[in-house]
Structure formats: structure tokens, C-alpha cells
Write a structure and sequence with these properties.
This protein is α+β, with helices and mostly antiparallel strands and about 110 residues long. It has helices at about 1-10, 65-75; strands at about 15, 30-40, 40-45, 45-50, 50-60, 85-90, 95-105. The protein has a single domain, classed as STM4215-like (2-Layer Sandwich).
Length: about 110
Amino acid sequence: MEELVQIIQEMKIPFAYDHFAEGESPDPPFICYLIPGSDNFAADGRVYFKLNEVRIEMYTDFKDPSLESRVEDVLDRHEIFYNKLETWIQSEKLYEVMYSFDMEGLNNG
């Protein structure tokens, strides 16, 4: 998904798909993104319209509203409707702010 990668690049935060290789994770903040599923629309017994579930997970050492605003400004500029969830990961001593949304797949219609 080239379009998704371009959107994440605009956030100017190091990122990787799903996870960084062991020992290669940058210092926070960083982003891991993934496409865990789809909600495709069927017509005539085939996939007519592809819709991918997307998750952008941002990890920080501390609550950083200005960084969250940067991510949200990029999503807003691209007119992406998202939901946001925040959690503290005690074992990693990191905040995770997750943005989830649906994004059209390639070759629709």
C-alpha cells in the first residue's frame, strides 16, 4: 500500500510494518503499522470493493499531545476518519496511541 506508506512518511516519525527487527528498534517515538484484516464488499460472487483495516500504533516514552496532533493533522489532511485508543504498556514503559481506520484497496469497482 504505497499510499499508506506515503501518508505515514508525512508524519516524520520512524516506522516499520508490524514491528522492527530485534535490536533495530529506534528510540521512541516510533510507529508500527499493520493491516490486520479486511471488510470487503462482494458482488456477483467476487470481491467487488476492497476495504482494508489499518492500524497505526505510535509508541512514546511519555504522553505527547503535540506529537499526537502531528499524526492527526496528517490523517485529517487526507480526510481519513479514524478512531483513537491509548494505553500504557507497563512491561515496556511506553505509551501506545493507536489510530484505526479503513482504507480502500487497489482496483476497486
